[in-house]
Amino acid sequence: MSKQSEGQKKEEALSYRRRNYFETAGAEEREKMFEYAEGYKAFLDAGKTEREACDAAVRLAQEKGFKPYRMGDPLKKGDKRYFVNRGKSVVVFRVGTRDLEEDGIRLIASHIDAPRVDIKQNPLYEDGNMCFLKTHYYGGIKKYQWTAIPLSLHGAVILADGRKVEIRVGDEPSDPVFYINDLLPHLGRDQMSQTGDKIVEGEQLNVLVGGLPYADEEVKDKVKLTVLSILNEKYGMTEEDFISAELSAVPAFPARDVGFDRALIGAYGHDDRVCAYPALTAVLDNETEHTVLAALVDKEEIGSEGTTGMKCQVYEDLIEEISLAFGASVRKVRAASKCLSSDVTACFDPNFANVYDKRNAAMLSCGTCMNKFTGARGKSGSNDASAEFVGEVRRMFAQEGVVWQTAELGKVDAGGGGTVAMFISKLNIDTVDLGVPVISMHAPYELISKADLYSTYLAFRAFMK
Ligand code: MN
Ligand code: MN
User: Fold this and answer.
1) Do 278 and 344 form a contact (C-beta atoms < 8 A)?
2) Which terminus of the chain is more exposed, N or C, with fewer CB under 10 A?
3) CA 87 to centroid of ligand 1, rounded, Å
């Protein structure tokens, strides 16, 4: 072992240095990271929409002995419950032994919706011997990224008689997939001179769903009729039923390990299932004295609106119901509660280094990442957690040896973004953002590190301890 000089010792004691979690973890811990990633990949493949992710979370909760909760149900200490909101968001919680008014609730909030291409309400048409579905994209996408890749169709249709049918086609190897056409480069001279948002426009994101003409000379739109016949045969649908349907085209690829060493995971919808899964499993797997709650919510990608988004009163109601069940003042419970708003952050990418301040950017594999603030321009639209709360969370992580880092989204004025943090902090709950760094965020196939995934799980566990 080489001897450290006095200056080196001082430097080590006084300087802040981030460390690669793969490097600091022993062989045993590395094995745990890889093992944990297997469960996560299965969760991703099971849930490509908020409805499916909600169902997948409920199945995991049931396996761990969690029971359904309805507003007003009596509760007792030690209860393990899950609350489903309209099939699109789910809250799992454990009632701890500590006093609710003094100790509050430890909350983790993440989202299970992801950017995608939604099918319009009157979508079906035929042109050029092909049948298409018109779409309206959901969330912030680079539209040109969604052409010429295999897509699967997911969602639910409410038929005229009120029955609900679930559709999921394109994920099984034996399934057909769907497709959005792109222009050949040979004829792409005009297209390639457009700005990025115009290379492929919203009304060009039409999903190809058929090409076989119906065998009847008298019919005008023969390919469309073939598709309608199949939809009717398989799902009992007519064209009018699209009006009361929520169908989405999402990438058909499964989650896969990336790299010779399998250090990374490529998948659709890491944002934000890569935080939702650790939040869920942290609550399901760990008994604690605190009352703990993980909310997996919908609609974050379009502003957290609606009955299933974080702005909905239902989450506040739930905190109130839990408080009332123990005769506690909801105001006191909220004031004593703490929250990790758990969403992904931008990972430093050497291919696009100019948009990052490297000192304040999340580095791949350096652990889960805290964003004291998000927002745009002068921190506009940000929760901006207090130094006191950041200090408290920091001590929790230090105590449990969590490898983590801090960052902001990118260079000042390079852009910006928000999370659900501000909707929770307005309830008088101390909240800070924490989540997994993602490469190619909002692309059809995003990238994360297994070390950062596992570190996020350990961070949640430390927060709940
Ligand atoms: Mn997100
Ligand atoms: Mn997002």
Assistant:
1) no
2) N
3) 19
The reported pTM is 0.97
Distance 32 CA to ligand 2 centre (A): 27
What's the whole-number mean pLDDT along residues 248-268?
98
Expressed in angstroms and rounded, the spacing between residue 465 Cα and the centre of ligand 1 is 25
Compute, in angstroms, the gap from residue 416 CA to the centroid of ligand 2. Answer: 11
If you measure from the C-alpha of residue 271 to the centroid of ligand 1, how many angstroms do you get, rounded to a whole number? 5
Give the number of other Cβ atoms within 10 Å of residue 208's Cβ. Answer: 15
Please give the pLDDT value at position 375. Answer: 87
Q: How far, in Å, is the centroid of ligand 1 from the Cα of 270?
A: 9
Determine the distance separating the centroid of ligand 2 and the alpha carbon of 93, expressed in angstroms: 25
pLDDT the model gives residue 1 = 56
| Residue whose token pair is 């701890």 | 96
Q: What is the pLDDT of residue 326?
A: 97
Q: Which domain holds residue 247?
A: 116-251
Tokens of 304: 């957290």
Q: Both 290 and 434 in a single domain?
A: yes
Question: What are the E-state strand segments in 345-458?
Answer: 345-346, 368-371, 375-376, 404-406, 416-417, 430-435, 437-438, 446-449
